[in-house]
Amino acid sequence: MTLTASQAPAPPGRTAPPRRRGSAPRRAWRTFSPYAYLAPFFTLFAAFGLFPLIYTAYVSLYRVELQTPGDMQWRGFGNYTALLGDEYFWLALRNTFTIGVLSTVPQLVMALGLAHLLNYRLRGRTFLRTAILLPYATSVAAATLVFAQLFGSDFGLVNYVLGTVGIDPVDWQNDTVASQIAVSSIVIWRWTGYNALIYLAGMQSIPNELYEAAAMDGASRWRQFFHVTLPGLRPTIVFTVVVSTIGATQLFGEPLLLEGQISGGISHQYQTLGLYMYEQGWGFFHLGRAAAIAWVMFLLIVVLVGVNALIARRRSRKEAGR
Fold first, then answer.
1. Which residue, among 173, 133, 175, 165, has the nearest Cα to 149 in the 3D structure?
2. Do 202 and 75 reside in the same domain of the chain?
3. Cα separations (Å) of 69 from 64, 175, 254, 258, 285?
4. Which of 48, 76, 160, 162 is positioned for an S-S bond with 167, CB 3.0–4.6 A?
5. Where are the residues of the annotated region Disordered (predicted)?
6. Three-class DSSP labels, the chain
7. Is 263 found in the same domain as 212?
8. Structurally, how many domains does the chain consist of?
9. Cα end-to-end distance, the chain, whole Å
10. What is the pLDDT of residues 192-229, one digit of tens each?
11. CA distances, 254 to each of 177, 183, 188 (Å)
12. pLDDT band at 55, cuts 50/70/90?
């Protein structure tokens, strides 16, 4: 015989207390508080990022002069078609591409080598890591003025050094290739240390077990670099290539201050798209055409970034399929 205790009946008039869900204003605050925290960023982005971009596209469809900005005449895509027929636009586009290649490729290669050296345990490596970042902290104007003196045609230090080894002086301001090399050297000097620290951070995230396994298999340091370091740095390399490409497309301060001309030299030999846009807007007062150049630069950056992303994705798919 089993005895079970009967459940005591609940007292009349008393029920289980309801679960507290908070008041309606508190629930509304919990729902919308994340948007309130993000609102300052989106407000600033809309005011200083999105609105100028849209307004520039709007202005690029009109003929607007700097002296009379309120007098706008509809041109449609006339500003864009005028660019296609302007030889100086194509010259600036070609100069932007050549200076971008001359500055980006050596810069990233040197940064990769410096990062590889700083990744080892060296004496004073903390000082070296700080020292290679100092050029990045230097202003564009100061760096360019110093390099303009170094690359002077008559009393420049570079021509003096070349003369000691029997090489004739080079006209760094008027020669096309020499002037582009001079502009590229300023970019290389300023940004190599910055990219080196990015590569160094990527190298330190690679597990040491991979290097130990490669060393046990008899791989030298060069083989470890090519078969362990470079594959582990592939996302970082893609990032630096994209950022350097964007910076090369927007290059402005270095070619402007090298000789102090918005034309980029006597024959426009180192005039970039940024200088060409400045010349059209504030030199010739054609704000509509300058806005069209700005949008061409924006679309060019989008295309270049898309191509880099597509190449990186295809390489990752090929490696994943092996």
1. 173
2. no
3. 6, 38, 29, 31, 10
4. 162
5. 1-25
6. CCCCCCCCCCCCCCCCCCCCCCCHHHHHHHHHHHHHHHHHHHHHHHHHHHHHHHHHHHHCCEECECCCCCCCEECCCHHHHHHHCCHHHHHHHHHHHHHHHHHHHHHHHHHHHHHHHHCCCCCCHHHHHHHCCHHHHCCHHHHHHHHHHHCCCCCCHHHHHHHHCCCCCCCCCCCHHHHHHHHHHHHHHHHHHHHHHHHHHHHHCCCHHHHHHHHHCCCCHHHHHHHHHHHHCHHHHHHHHHHHHHHHHCCCHHHHHHHCCCCCCCCCCCCCHHHHHHHHHHHCCEHHHHHHHHHHHHHHHHHHHHHHHHHHHHHHHHHHHC
7. yes
8. 2
9. 73
10. 999 999 999 999 888 888 888 888 888 888 888 888 88
11. 16, 6, 11
12. very high
Of the candidates 140, 204, 163, 179, the one whose C-alpha atom is nearest the C-alpha of residue 265 is: 179
264/295 same-domain check:
no
For residue 260 the two structure tokens come to: 């102090």
Given a contact cutoff of 8 angstroms between Cβ atoms, the answer to whether 248 and 188 are in contact is no
In a domain, 200, yes or no: yes
Q: What is the CA radius of gyration of the chain?
A: 30
Largest CA distance in the chain: 118
Domain limits for position 133: 89-285
Q: Are residues 80 and 205 in the same domain?
A: no
Angle between helices 87-118 and 234-249 (to 10 degrees): 150
pLDDT tens across 222-260, in order?
888 888 888 889 889 989 998 998 999 999 989 998 888
The structure tokens 């302007």 sit at: 86
CA distance 1 to 238: 80
